[in-house]
Automatic annotation (TrEMBL), chains A, D:
Keyword tags: ATP-binding, Cytochrome c-type biogenesis, Membrane, Nucleotide-binding, Translocase, Transport
Listed name of the protein: Heme ABC exporter, ATP-binding protein CcmA
SUPFAM superfamilies, alphabetized: P-loop containing nucleoside triphosphate hydrolases
Listed GO MF terms: ATP binding; ATP hydrolysis activity; transmembrane transporter activity
Alphabetical list of PANTHER family matching this protein: ABC TRANSPORTER I FAMILY MEMBER 1
Record GO biological process: cytochrome complex assembly
InterPro entries recorded: AAA+_ATPase, ABC_transporter-like_ATP-bd, ABC_transporter-like_CS, ABC_transptr_haem_export_CcmA, P-loop_NTPase
Annotated organism of origin: Brevirhabdus pacifica
Signal peptide: none
UniProtKB/TrEMBL annotation, chain B:
Any single GO CC term annotated in Swiss-Prot or TrEMBL for this entry: plasma membrane
Record function comment: Required for the export of heme to the periplasm for the biogenesis of c-type cytochromes.
Stretches assigned to coiled coil: none
Membrane-spanning residues: 20-42, 54-81, 93-115, 127-147, 159-179, 199-221
GO molecular function, one term: heme transmembrane transporter activity
Signal peptide: none
The protein's name in its UniProt record: Heme exporter protein C
UniProt keyword annotation of Hydrolase present: no
InterPro entries: Cyt_c_assembly, Cyt_c_biogenesis_CcmC, Cyt_c_biogenesis_CcsA/CcmC
Superkingdom of this protein's organism: Bacteria
Native source organism of the sequence: Brevirhabdus pacifica
Key words, A-Z: Cell inner membrane, Cell membrane, Cytochrome c-type biogenesis, Membrane, Transmembrane, Transmembrane helix, Transport
Organism ancestry: Bacteria, Pseudomonadati, Pseudomonadota, Alphaproteobacteria, Rhodobacterales
Single GO BP term: cytochrome complex assembly
TrEMBL record, chains C, E:
Protein name, UniProt field: Heme exporter protein B
MF annotations from Gene Ontology: heme transmembrane transporter activity
InterPro entries per the UniProt record, alphabetical: Cyt_c_biogenesis_CcmB, Cyt_c_CcmB_bac
UniProt-listed NCBIfam families: ccmB (TIGR01190)
Family membership: Belongs to the CcmB/CycW/HelB family.
Organism: Brevirhabdus pacifica
GO cellular component: plasma membrane
Keyword Hydrolase: no
């Protein structure tokens, strides 16, 4: 469903991860782990197609990905229902009732998004995934500021999604209680990347005279 | 029992509800008498012809436009000092009325200006400061609309009203300095020689009284509406949350 | 796409930055100019076309950063970029929504403000016509500028700086149309040029804007 | 050190919490718990003095509180050191080296804040607490997007703060591994507040004719 | 407080909205006006004082929302409100930083732009003087407006609507000073009024602004 092969990605012009590879099959969940700053967000944005890879290959179904990031993409001046309906219309996805129920938002239907608490906002951001109708979910720390009950709701939603043949790629620091493979990113840290102890060979002495690493 | 009792929303609703029918009746009576007297039972002016009759709308509207702002200023101060919700809502209620009065004064003035000065608009100090007043009303109302939390909106608009008043007075002076005007000076003062002749004067007084009453009536009505709106919002919010 | 357009309209109206305020700014600007240059009527009537056009341009400019910035900040733009809608369509829909909330009201109120500035009688119809034809170009050029600066924190002034030179041709032909109209001269050429610019801009700039957005997102 | 008594607080003109009371002594940590939307953020803002209480009393030392919220108060265009030094200067607090070390930011000293990852930003936001030199910390979900190692750093910092006679009031959903009292906010939910089943009496029939509840 | 002022200066310069851009906007505006109203020199020289003043005012206005909005969004304002510095001082420091990054450069470049608009010779010194005295008032009034609208998402246009009428007296006295200077008339009264307004505004409005901020934060 989603195949990533020997992928390198960069942020701010600096290589962050190097040689990442994995395969995500329908019905599977893959959890990305790694300390803060290793490059999880960068990897997910690259896979989602928001930035080009430095090297390597990403095989994803055309129009098959749904991405949810640190920011939720909610309009403060629109209500919960309006927000969801907008995204449903854009993606041509399923109707929103199911999504409202799955994330326990029915009681908040007509509240403006700006009047939600941090966790309620996050639930709405996750409900958006359901109305995209996309098979592959790419999630960056989805459970931030959720309480235990809401984390369980989220886990249920992921399970239901996988049971229906979908799959999910999730970067997270906490245990979601999902049956999933875990990919630790630490071994893929690019040489010389932020926080690395051993510096890579000096830039003024490249091995290949035609390959200048200042322009990677 | 102090006068502040009436600042309680419940109490205000009771009293204003009882008062309103009388006010409406009195307003209608005064306005009809004043306007009919002015329009049909006074002669034409020897210089201005029948256009002089615009005065019965123009002058009262202009007076009320200014006084509405004064009332808002007073209500804002009361809100800031004593935090009586009714006074905040009364200020909010008065703003669109003041805006309308300003518009009426501007429009009747423009219509009058065409025959009198040969132009719809001139950058005369009084006209100009009225235009600025219009902008102040617009900004004040826009700020009320833009803020969602009622008490926050009341506080901020009150601050704006106070600072705005100072600047409005300042503008009035600045504009005077900037251009000498075409517009008539104040001619209603009682001790002046060149008062408008009595024929126009008495119906004009009745009209002014009518406009004052109209203003009071409308403010009462709209304040009641605002209070009900506020209760409705509170109910709806609870309903949604329950 | 239509959904996006409608959403932007709704947000424009709700978010405290809707119809009324674009108008209000235009109004205020037109009121301020006489304070600056003095109140003589025959004098005002000479500069009226230019001032009205410059005013329309500035009113447009002030609301430009709303086009993409909010969507960028709350992450909507990332999501739209991976959604099954072409980004060119997104930029066009957003520019159009901007025009409807900003340009259109300006067209409608311009005659009223013309009175304040003593705009000569025959110029009114040309004023409306030229604004109606020219303001879409302002919105689409502005959307391109907004797309270029979207990544920058509060790029408001940078945006103005980029966009104003692009506005020059529109401004020249627009104001020229009204000036000629006021003096009873033929207005065919400037009006045709204005229409040409608008058409070209509306047809082509969404592509440039979409390209700029893609670059800014990565 | 901090005494809160019969406190009621409101958000958006609507009562959220009712009758909250607690005492925080020097050296103590109090953890606030409660489901999403119960009013933790509202309570903390009220205690920090950012919004007035509807009723009740807050006894806090003058200029004794340091508040850290969902947003970090970082300037994207300033470096890590510049950000910290600014807050240190404003609060007249201790020098910043200690704070940099405590949150493992030394290697990031001269990085612009906008080029930090989510977790690094959060660490910087927490380091700010150390340079305020204030005894009472008021923290709203401080560990959002932190990895395990960083959560441990944070817990160490809180322990050191308490050992030095400070105290902390923390709203969080996860277990920080701190020795602390826990206050569950669920019983203090205001009547008619979000999620409450029994609606309060209708507004047009208040018991006291002079008390209009639309204007609380 | 000084730290805050310095930080705001540094941010103003770094954040892409610094010195250069305020100037650039002013420059472009002054360049656009001849396109709008036509190029006759004696004509331009008559409207020059007014246009320069209106331009300064708009350049100021465009950068106003930066004063508090960014700090509000990233939470700094909450933190400043509980910090051991009076909020009045915070607003004053921020308004001052705004003046140094926006008003001051305008004062310095105005003579250059006067040349473009054919400003009459004797008016130059009055132009500089009146701008130097008047622009601080613009920044402080603007800071008050920004404090009123800080909670509102992209309150840019609302801010303009609130602030522009407050700018009227400053504009009138400023432009009047230059106009009289250009014609060789005495300028004492308007200049004194301008100075009076500036002093009063700088002394009093930070209190109103701080009050508005406190209300907006809760
Ligand atoms: C748009 C144009 C105009 C505006 C905004 C305007 C505004 C005002 C205002 C504000 C007042 C009340 C002043 C006060 O009592 O303090 C007033 C009064 C008056 N206006 Fe106008 N005016 C306009 C045009 C005209 C014209 C064209 C005429 C006729 C020549 C006129 C004649 C009068 C008269 C006779 C009064 C009563 C003066 C007095 O006794 O105070 N106005 N106008
Ligand atoms: N312009 C830049 N220059 C240097 N390093 C940068 C720049 N921008 C980002 N980085 C670094 O790139 C790394 C990858 O960041 P990314 O946001 O992908 O991390 P992450 O794994 O998502 O971390 P977190 O768990 O904290 O969200 C970080 O160490 C960050 O500091
Ligand atoms: N304008 C409003 N009208 C109605 N309810 C509101 C309004 N603003 C906020 N609320 C509600 O007030 C409650 C308290 O919000 P608060 O942010 O304090 O919750 P919280 O405990 O911090 O939640 P979280 O854990 O999700 O951050 C929420 O249920 C929220 O939906
Ligand atoms: Mg991340
Ligand atoms: Mg919260």
């Amino acid at each position: 469903m989603l195949t990533v092969d020997a992928l390198s990605c960069a942020r701010g012009g600096l290589a962050v991860l190097h040689g990442v590879g994995f395969v995500l099959n329908p019905g599977e969940v893959l959890i990305l782990r790694g300390p803060n700053g290793i490059g999880k967000t960068t990897l997910l944005r690259t896979v989602a197609g928001l930035q080009p890879p430095v090297a390597g290959r990403i095989d994803a179904p055309a129009e098959g990905l749904a991405y949810a990031a640190h920011a939720d993409g909610l309009k403060a001046q629109m209500t919960v229902v309006e927000n969801l309906e907008f995204w449903s219309a854009i993606f041509g996805g399923p109707p929103i009732d199911e999504a409202l129920r799955a994330f326990d938002l029915v009681g908040l239907r007509s509240r403006l998004a700006q009047n939600l608490s941090a966790g309620q906002k996050r639930r709405l951001g996750l409900a958006r995934l359901l109305v995209t109708g996309r098979p592959v979910w790419i999630l960056d720390e989805p459970t931030v500021s959720l309480d235990r009950a809401s984390v369980a709701l989220f886990a249920d939603a992921v399970r239901a999604h996988c049971a229906a043949g979908g799959s999910a790629l999730i970067a997270t620091h906490i245990d979601l209680g999902l049956q999933a493979e875990v990919l630790d990113l630490t071994p893929f840290r690019a040489e010389g990347a932020p926080g690395e102890a051993s510096p890579r060979p000096r830039a003024d002495a490249p091995t290949d005279p035609f390959d200048d690493e200042a322009f990677l | 029992m102090s006068i502040w009792e009436y600042a309680n929303p419940k109490r205000f609703m009771q009293v204003s509800g009882a008062l309103l029918p009388w006010l409406v009746g009195l307003t209608l009576l005064t306005l009809i008498v004043g306007l009919v007297w002015g329009f049909f039972f006074t002669g034409d002016d020897y210089r201005q012809g029948s256009t002089v009759k615009i005065i019965y709308l123009h002058v009262p509207a202009a007076l009320m436009a200014i006084n509405a702002w004064m009332m808002m200023l007073a209500a804002s101060l009361i809100w800031l000092v004593r935090r009586h919700h009714v006074s905040a809502l009364a200020a909010r209620a008065a703003a669109p009325i003041g805006l309308t009065m300003t518009l009426i004064a501007l429009a009747t003035g423009a219509i009058w200006g065409q025959p009198m000065w040969g132009t719809w608009w001139a950058w005369d100090p009084r006209l100009t400061s009225f235009l600025i007043l219009f902008l102040f009303y617009l900004g004040y109302i826009a700020l009320w609309e833009a803020i969602e939390t009622p008490d926050t909106a009341a506080d901020l608009t009150s601050v704006l009203c106070i600072v705005g008043s100072v600047f409005a007075v300042l503008s009035r002076y600045a504009v005077n300095f900037w251009n000498q005007g075409l517009h008539q000076g104040a001619s209603l003062s009682l001790d002046k020689e060149e008062n408008v002749s009595d024929v126009f004067f008495f119906p004009l007084l009745v009209c002014i009284a009518g406009f004052v009453l109209l203003f009071v009536t409308l403010v009462f009505l709209r304040t009641r509406t605002e209070i009900r709106q506020r209760r409705l919002d509170a109910l709806e919010a609870r309903e949604r949350l329950a | 796409m239509i959904r996006l357009f409608l959403r932007d309209l709704a947000l424009g109206v709700r978010a405290g930055g809707g119809f009324g305020l674009g108008l209000a700014f235009f109004l205020i600007l037109v009121v301020l100019v006489p304070f600056g240059v003095g109140p003589e009527p025959q004098f005002l009537s000479r500069i009226a076309p230019g001032i009205l056009w410059v005013g329309a341009l500035l009113a447009c400019l002030l609301s430009l950063d709303r086009i993409f910035q909010l969507d960028f900040e709350d992450g909507s733009l990332d999501l739209l970029a991976v959604a099954p809608v072409p980004l060119e369509g997104v930029t066009a829909a957003k520019a159009l929504a901007h025009w409807v909330t900003t340009g259109l009201p300006l067209v409608l109120i311009a005659p009223l403000l013309g009175v304040l500035l003593n705009l000569p009688g025959p110029a009114y119809s040309y004023m409306i016509l030229s604004l109606a034809i020219g303001t879409p170009a302002l919105s689409f050029i502005g959307a391109f500028g907004a797309a270029l600066t979207v990544g920058l924190k509060r790029g408001g002034l940078l945006l103005s700086l980029l966009v104003l030179p692009l506005y020059v041709p529109t401004l020249i032909f627009g104001a020229e149309t009204v000036r000629r109209g006021a003096e009873g001269l033929p207005v065919g050429t400037p009006l045709a040029m204005l229409a040409g610019i608008s058409l070209a801009v509306v047809a082509l700039l969404p592509f440039a804007a979409a390209a700029a957005l893609r670059i800014n997102l990565r």
